[in-house]
């Protein structure tokens, strides 16, 4: 191998090494970007998990509120039923009183 061929081989090797170094730098840069992306995805997953727990608690609270509202709605109906029951009882008592008054009178 001549000196010129040897020099050309050395120049080619240096150029190859330079290209490989640039490719390696690019690969490390992409790896760093992937690390940042993975960290962001992890933080997002943690955030979604926390929101899921909050939503579950809110659902429990809503169930409690719904039960309370149903109970409050039922109270006037119960009072109405009790009032109607008392009125019917009074009417029946008055009717019996009238019948007894006519029989006794």
Structure, explained:
The termini are far apart. Helices cover 97% and strands 0% of the residues. It has 105 residues and is an all-alpha fold.
What is the percentage of strand-forming residues?
under 5%
Q: Helical content, roughly?
A: over 70%
What is the ordering of alpha helices and beta strands?
A: H
Mean pLDDT: 91
Number of helices: 1
> How many strands in all?
0
Distance between the termini: 150 Å
Core attributes:
105 residues, mainly alpha
Topology:
Blueprint: H1 3-104
Short description:
The protein is 97% helix and 0% strand. The chain is an all-alpha fold and 105 residues long.
């Amino acid at each position: 191998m001549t000196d010129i061929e040897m020099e050309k081989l050395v120049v080619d090797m240096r150029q190859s090494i330079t290209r490989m170094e640039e490719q390696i730098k690019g690969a490390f840069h992409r790896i760093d970007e992937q690390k940042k992306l993975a960290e962001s995805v992890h933080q997002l997953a943690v955030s979604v998990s926390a929101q899921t727990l909050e939503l579950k608690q809110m659902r429990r609270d809503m169930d409690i509120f719904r039960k309370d509202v149903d109970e409050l709605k039922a109270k006037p109906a119960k009072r109405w039923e009790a009032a109607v029951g008392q009125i019917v009882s009074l009417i029946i008592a008055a009717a019996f009183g009238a019948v007894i008054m006519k029989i006794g009178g």
